[in-house]
Model the fold of this input.
Amino acid sequence: MLANPRFHGKPPPLPSPFLQSFRSESFVFSFCRPGKSPLSSPLSLTRTKTLRIKALNVSKSSEVTNDSFDGTQYVPQPYSVKIPVGDRHIFVETGHIGRQASGSVTVTDGETIVYTSCCLADVPSEPSDFFPLSVNYQERFSAAGRTSGGFFKREGRAKDHEVLICRLIDRPLRPTMMKGFYHETQILSWVLSYDGLHSPDSLAITAAGIAVALSEVPHSKVIAGVRIGLVGDKFIVNPTTKEMEKSELDLVLAGSDTAILMIEGFCNFLPEEKLLQAVEIGQDAVRVICNEVQALVKKCGKPKMVEAIKLPPPELYRHVEEIAGDELVKVLQLRNKIPRRKALSALEEKVLTILTEKGYVSKDETLGAAEIIPELFEDEDEDEAVVVDGEVDEGDVHIKPVSRKPVPKFFSEVDVKLVFKDVTSKFLRRRIVEGGKRSDGRTPSGIRVINSKCGLLPRAHGSALFTRGETQSLAVVTLGDKQMAQRIDNLVDVDEVKRFYLQYSFPPSCVGEVGRMGAPSRREIGHGMLAERALEPILPSDEDFPYTIRVESTITESNGSSSMASVCGGCLALQDAGVPVKSSIAGIAMGMVLDTQEFGGDGAPLILSDITGSEDASGDMDFKVAGNESGITAFQMDIKVVGITLPIMEQALLQARYGRKQILAEMLKCSPPPSKKLSEHAPLIHVMKVKPEKINVIIGSGGKKIKSIIEETGVEAIDTQDDGVVKITAKDITSLEKSKAIIANLTMVPVIGDIYRNCEIKSIAPYGAFVEIAPGREGLCHISELSSDWLAKAEDAFKVGDRVDVKLIEINDKGQLRLSRRALLPDPSPEKSVKPRTSSPSKESGSSQNALSKGAFRRVVSPPRVEVSEEDMKGSEDRDTLKATSSRRKISSSQDSLTTPEKVVRKPLGPASDDPYINEETHKKNSSEVVSSVTGKDGSSLVNGEARIGS
Done:
């Protein structure tokens, strides 16, 4: 655009009379080069050319008046409407937020608010067979009163959860966009408020459909979305998050008032009939929303830019069919994908070359460019020579215009390519409908050849290669502990941890192309999640199989249905890794040719099983269904037409069930078959259950104890939970058993009557010895319980480091242990047990004879009993305090004890459990508190019965 320097920027506003005359007249502008023109303007031109400007076509409703320049601004008025959805209403408001966008809306459900805007570019982009639509959805953490867990405390790149919702928005909108509209369209959606009950994803679909309907983007139908849950036998529209916890179905449905455009979800082996009922209920809810939105659009919607639609000229279709029709029929009969793709590419170049030679196509972009209309009004100089209309001023030479010969109309190269693709799709559909055969020779319900094998990768925990036709998936399973779990931080699921996840990758080499490798695309994330949801219902519970499971599906070959190949390959790889799955799962992709009457059919939709890539691109539907013979576990449907009906979906589901049965039968022929046992390279995980209050004993102060156990035993990890569950992960059985024994000893619940062998004496006090019955667990063996003979001092018979066998005879209220060595010693003979007493021999003799005659009692001579307080019963950690205390106790010397009359204790002869120190009620109580017993490698018990510690 040329600028007049006298304006110093934008030209001044033109008076209204000039604008009115400009609407009805044509003007001629002259541009002259400086130097030879009589014009005084420095931008004058020596050669003047006539440019005829077409009158602007401005409607009366948008007529510009002087009032337009008074500084006032038009402010759109807000509109709102309440729409019934399920058992409540959603609130839709527009014209309040985002007024400069082409279309904007806020949708509220409960206290969850989603704001969505729709904008489009002013200038159209290059024509393409892919509508220039981009969708971005973001969940603001501030919506739930939180901040991001990242360092920068702000939302970053889209999370997988947000990418999946972007796809939910994009897929139903794209079929409604008009062909030939190339203005880039962007939909932005934010969750501004989240109440924790009402999910924002289905609201975002509805908000995007309303924003597009209110904008200038031309589209064919208003769309809306809902979620359907199944609690018991009742279907719920837009269920709350609490209701979804009990639901057997998670279905997200989008559609218009007349048809279904998209469904996606997962369920727990739901039969096809139940799924169809859910779809019908969802379609009824969507119809109500669409009708209300259409009434809102009539009030405040903007006029559509229908005039911006640029379609290829109809005669171009005729030219392409004449040139390539016969060869297309032959090329489409090629069975293999790569030769067919190369033949189609060569045929496309041939069509371009022929049309160029005939003068219909020129690769010179300037010829196909639109006529440029100058937007600057130059000042008319009064000395400017006016050129008569139809003449050309070439300085002093005036050349009269002559009539030109008509030239053929030019087609752009892009239009030829678009038309060639449409013609190819038309011929492919015609071949399927008329001949009943597809490109690879299959019937509409036929399945491609399937072969599979397991155990390809010797070091992987599980692997499988699944091949179906020209689609191939290499699935690898990795097993690990909780540290391998995937942590998710999003608005809906706070700090969710996934113990099973499937990651799908689609490298360019799988289709024989060269491309950039980087972060996973939205398509890869979506396909991976679909396969993950399909396999999740067959996995065992965490209690039965305490592993984190990761499945990688790398597509090594692709010709359609690669996500369903990931389901089949992933199922085989899980079995090869030894995961005890509940059943086998298979997936199949269904296609459709809707308008069969166009090609001589009976008008009924033609459903195709196990579609290839070309049938997906040229067909009208891509319906993926995964499950087993009894029900469905996951599904996803996309269409390229304005919608399908329930009868069509029912036919597709029934044909998909038949196809799944065929695929499952072929998977049973896998050679070599899955090993179905845990790989020797997989980590070993052992789950223990201890009392919750014992967890701190395992962890220790600052985690020192658990770290020392890991270092000492060589295990990989020890995971503790607040409910008392302890998971030990190790590479070998030796380290696992060692750590099990240590943890069992630390957390064991001693039972009165338990016998502990070969226990070490850790310290000796004047009143007894402290014996370690398990690592970190000590008890007091009183001096009276150390020997059957009388001892003046414990040091006289034992020293630190000696090993003894002891029996637990008492547990006080504080959990302190009292041990006895004497209870395990052989009974002494009565003669040696009784010392003659000089004070009263008659009594002594009488009592001795009485004991022998009964045969049930024995006489035990005990030393003077030393009173031991609870403080004396403390563990080894208070040993220094005990020593200091014992030095201050008043204990009789050995000489005093000799002069003290001896006490005769009557003790019943019988098993060790009849020890007088044992309280029967306490014994029963403690026995019931034993949580678990740990068994060693040899099968011997380490806790119950006789626990051999340190042997």
Remarks:
- The chain has a mean pLDDT of 78.
- Residues 272-300 form the longest helix (29 residues).
